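HOLO CASE FILE
Compound: flavin-adenine dinucleotide
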Amino acid sequence: MSDPTARFAEIVGDHNLLTGDAIPDDYSHDEELTQPPQKPAYVAKPATAEEVSRLLVAASEGRIPVTARGSGSGLSGAAIPRQDGLVISFERMNAVLEVDTTNQVAVVQPGVTLTALDAATADTGLRYMVHPGELSSSVGGNVGTNAGGMRAVKYGIARHNVLGLQAVLPTGEIIRTGGRIAKISTGYDLTQLIVGSEGTLALATEVIVKLHPRLDHAATLLAAFADFDQVMEAVPKVLASGLGPYIVEYIDNMTMAALIHTQNLELGIPDAIRDSCQAYLVVALENRTAGRLGEDVERAGELLASLGAVDAYVLEGVSARKLIEAREKAFWTAKAIGADDIIDTVVPRSAMPKFLAGARGLASAAGGAAAGCGHAGDGNVHLAIICKDAAKRKQLMTDIFALAMELGGAISGEHGLGRAKTPYFLRLEDPAKVALLRRIKESFDPAGILNPDVLFAAGEA
Ligand SMILES: Cc1cc2nc3c(=O)[nH]c(=O)nc-3n(C[C@H](O)[C@H](O)[C@H](O)COP(=O)(O)OP(=O)(O)OC[C@H]3O[C@@H](n4cnc5c(N)ncnc54)[C@H](O)[C@@H]3O)c2cc1C
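Model generated. Tokens follow.
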């Protein structure tokens, strides 16, 4: 391609193409902690699928690497571009196209943020339930990472809530997958192949998401446990109780202390209990009526006591919201206290005690520490890793991921691999599986332009 700047500008218009010093630093990173920012050569802000298609055709011809960007809140370095590359930012494609209450779906452009989608559905009594802690994140980013979040224990992850896509292939073809339909058994499921592919296969230009009823009454129980293993043993019993909690999170005592301190939380937990507890379980319940909710809260309190909770506090209104928000912001707390890396490993729920004990043991053997919280109902463990020595830390991370995989888990439960975790994935994953993924990638993206450093060819961890 003779002059990429002129070609991209001709597609999106001069005002919607940034180059050189005009590119703000924001486009060079996401929120991941370890990967160096890289300023791209071009940032294009298309307004339509056709413009995305023409950008990808031009980039394929010129072999220019392309990184899609939603809100840049990802935690794996998947939105960090190549220095010679093109960022396609979906910030102008931010319309909620339709809220279809009959089919209980919303049809949205990828740049719509979760806050905007929530506002657009508020009057319908329905809601998009994928709820990663960062509500400035975009639906396109949720598609890219297969986002999870706290409500996944009841409502599932992005994969369960994305019913269809309009997507642009790197060759420029525009396809539609799935639809406003509850089921489909017609060939390979391309929607699900694209969800979670971290911008390496195709770019979503329209997303059909499932909506669920909003339940008006909610309460949160915070249960303190003296023994860490008791918390993990309580989780399956809470899930099997039929109470249908929409949040089941654990928070270890170090992390709770940091959340209380950094976010000025007032939870009313007596010092004696705080000092003697190893961990907390947060269980949030919701219902159609206050009466039914009240019955469920009472039952949950009894259950938690029978499972060994030292005490359980029922939080409503502001204090419940503050606790949930503090938990959502746990990443910022980990960053503020100097975490060197984070993991979001997933293991079978039954393996959580073994995994957590193993990970903490490995961290202390490496002269570091591992503390955190996580989506206990999903077996999704978020650990802040503190280990200043880079070489030791890489080995520690490798050992922790290897342990998770031995226990039947996976490196990432929801953040994705990005640039940060790809090297561990390539080191630890079955080579036959990686080779198959590579062949799938080649069939979507023959020129290899889409996010080439993610999943396959990133640098050293
Ligand atoms: C405080 C905090 C808490 C968080 N908590 C959670 C949590 O609980 N659960 C969770 O899952 N995540 C969590 N995250 C991570 C993050 O919010 C999610 O990964 C979110 O899905 C990223 O959306 P984004 O719009 O910021 O995407 P970006 O970071 O911009 O991009 C993420 C990936 O999606 C790709 N992408 C973007 N747009 C498209 C598109 N249109 N088509 C195809 N690919 C695309 C990008 O190339 C990249 O690979 C948290 C982040 C923060 C900062």
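CASE NOTES: The two ends are 33 Å apart (CA to CA). The chain is about 35% helix and 20% strand.
CLOSED: yes
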